[in-house]
From TrEMBL:
<dbReference type="Pfam" id="PF01546">
    <property type="entry name" value="Peptidase_M20"/>
</dbReference>
<dbReference type="InterPro" id="IPR017439">
    <property type="entry name" value="Amidohydrolase"/>
</dbReference>
<dbReference type="InterPro" id="IPR036264">
    <property type="entry name" value="Bact_exopeptidase_dim_dom"/>
</dbReference>
<dbReference type="GO" id="GO:0004046">
    <property type="term" value="F:aminoacylase activity"/>
</dbReference>
<dbReference type="InterPro" id="IPR002933">
    <property type="entry name" value="Peptidase_M20"/>
</dbReference>
<protein>
    <submittedName>
        <fullName>N-acyl-L-amino acid amidohydrolase</fullName>
        <ecNumber>3.5.1.14</ecNumber>
    </submittedName>
</protein>
<keyword id="KW-0378">Hydrolase</keyword>
Length: 312
């Protein structure tokens, strides 16, 4: 009979497999919706473990099932598979071979955890009391590419009784797993702001409308909104990760595009931040600028009942 002690022994026996898998995946990161090699690598392993694969036509995501008894409950585990559009600075034999793309968010680790768990469950299927499905989700990083929502629409969650997932965190001590009662992750919305001003020579700034200064003013003022207009006991963040504008150093920029995220832990704070953002941009337009905001809700994760402290 399997118990927690020999489970640990069996899992540690998979350490070599886990290390090689993580290193292999770290070398082949791919952008959202383009995870062709990654998807193939994971599919081939899951097939070798004896899982039934379901593809989603036109997309790189897939599911893999191990059904021991159709009458039993179905437990799912989800992992993301895409990389980030940024360089890999690790500089070792396992570094990314795809220039400008890296697994800097840890999705190589997420996939490795899923694949190692899948291998263990397959090798010990006689001990299983539930059916299992692994969901390999494409395009978690880029809101512009169909990802989780598209897979749900196409049926990846059909018949699932419980679903689990995790995110690695380098701030935690190795060997620990963090659970939280209630909300674990924040509301998240990605925004894009376009500010259109009027170009003028740098020696005559009074004849133009400086889009760079206006964009930074809007972004800076949002920090004030977070500090003074939201409940300090409800964490919130307004972040700008990209800003581009201007063509030459001696002229005012007539266009700036900035991109970032809004994050909060409750719906009311989320509404305050978004309403304030639109209000500030509207004031800017009253000064002669022509602005446009685009935003899209990112996924929001709550702990499932099975992941609450009281159930552990």
């Amino acid at each position: 009979m399997t118990n927690k002690y020999n489970i640990s022994e069996k899992l540690f026996a998979l350490e070599t497999f886990s290390k090689k898998t993580r290193q292999d995946l770290h070398k082949i990161p791919e952008l959202s919706g383009q995870e062709f090699k990654t998807s193939q690598y994971c599919r081939e392993l899951m097939e070798s473990f004896g899982y039934n694969i379901r593809l989603f036509e036109g997309y790189t995501g897939f599911t893999a099932e191990l059904i021991i008894d159709p009458a039993k409950r179905l437990i799912a585990y989800r992992t993301d598979i895409d990389g980030l559009e940024m360089p890999d600075l690790t500089c070792n034999e396992h570094s990314s071979v795809h220039e400008g793309c890296a697994h800097n968010c840890g999705h190589d680790t997420h996939m490795t955890i899923a694949l190692t768990a899948a291998k263990y469950l397959s090798e010990n299927r006689s001990e299983l009391t539930h059916n299992v499905r692994f969901i390999f989700q494409m395009a978690e990083e880029d809101m512009r590419v169909p990802g989780a929502n598209k897979m749900v629409e196409m049926g990846c969650m059909e018949g699932v009784d419980e679903v689990y997932g995790l995110h690695n965190d380098a701030a935690f001590e190795t060997g620990y797993i963090k659970f939280n009662s209630g909300v674990m992750s924040s509301y998240g919305s990605a925004w894009t702001l376009d500010v259109h001003g009027v170009s003028a020579h740098g020696s005559t700034p009074h004849k133009g409308l400086d889009a760079i200064r206006e964009a930074t003013r809007i972004i800076d003022y949002m920090d004030y909104i977070v500090a003074k207009k939201t409940d300090p006991f409800s964490p919130a963040v307004f972040g700008c990760g990209m800003i581009n504008g201007g063509t030459i150093p001696n002229a005012l920029a007539d266009h700036v595009q900035a991109r970032g995220t809004i994050r909060s832990m409750d719906e009311e704070t989320d509404k305050i931040l978004k309403a304030s953002f639109h209000e500030i941009v509207a004031r800017s337009e009253a000064g002669g600028f022509k602005n446009h905001i685009r935003s899209k809700r990112l996924s929001r994760c709550r702990q499932s009942p099975a992941s609450r402290k009281s159930d552990l």
